Automatic annotation (TrEMBL):
It comes from the Eukaryota. Residues 1-20 are annotated as: Disordered. This is Radial spoke head 1 homolog. InterPro entries: MORN. One of its GO terms (cellular component) is motile cilium. GO terms for biological process: axoneme assembly; meiotic cell cycle; spermatid development. It is found in: Cytoplasm, Cytoskeleton, Flagellum axoneme. It comes from Certhia brachydactyla. Keywords: Cell projection, Cilium, Cytoplasm, Cytoskeleton, Flagellum, Meiosis, Repeat. Functions as part of axonemal radial spoke complexes that play an important part in the motility of sperm and cilia. Residues 1-12 have a biased composition (Basic and acidic residues).
């Protein structure tokens, strides 16, 4: 069902309202039969998108409300979250930053609602990876992350005015002589090895990149 403007070829063109065979509805602009321009698309499952379209795809700026209560507001490219945007998760966590191919990718800040902790730094394909700062209520950690875990040199900065320098080391998995083990062992958590406690300094994970040959 469609009611709205059409062009001389009879294609949907201009402003119109449509009900799709699957029960979804669209109200907005069309161009030569395709959703293009500004519009609001309501999904039968309760989701809703309002924003820009280009040739039937979400493209430009738009807000997507998910059935679970989560919400994304930001840039879209060919139906994918891409560019800069803010995501509010169903559990109250938020991410504000760069996206590529529907994943957190680039620089961004993730805030954990339950603890108030904040991760500010690099992301690769949705995973914390690269130089970053993890800020807690009375201390923070500055260092590098790999596959979502801290690894290598870093420091803890305490609000009382001192720092603990050291590094996160990946423990070696001990081999178990047991043929029955079907499941691969869980990866071990990196271990923090402190080296010294100092007054506040300006070291950051980016400094090593500058020093590297």
């Amino acid at each position: 069902e469609y009611e709205g403007e059409r062009n001389s070829d009879g294609q949907r063109h201009g402003f119109g309202k449509a009900r799709l065979p699957n029960g979804d509805t669209y109200e907005g602009e069309y161009e030569c039969g395709l959703r293009s321009g500004n519009g609001t698309y309501r999904f039968k499952n309760g989701a809703l998108y309002t924003g820009n379209y280009l040739q039937n795809q979400k493209h430009g700026k738009g807000v997507f409300f998910y059935p679970d209560g989560s919400k994304y507001a930001g840039d879209w490219v060919h139906d994918q979250k891409q560019g800069y945007g803010e995501y509010l998760y169903a559990n109250g966590d938020t991410y504000t930053g760069e996206w590529a191919n529907n994943k957190r990718h680039g620089q961004g800040t993730y805030v954990y609602k339950d603890t108030g902790s904040k991760y500010i730094g690099c992301w690769v394909n949705g995973i914390q990876d690269g130089p970053a700062e993890l800020i807690h209520l009375n201390h923070r950690f500055k260092g590098r992350f790999l596959n979502g875990k801290p690894l290598g040199r870093g420091k803890f900065i305490f609000d009382i005015g001192c720092e603990q320098h050291g590094e996160y080391i990946q423990p070696v998995q001990e081999k178990v002589e047991d043929e029955d083990e079907e499941e691969p062992p869980l990866p071990l958590e990196p271990i923090w090895k402190a080296s010294e406690i100092t007054k506040l300094t300006t070291w950051s994970p980016y400094d090593e990149e500058l020093l590297a040959p």
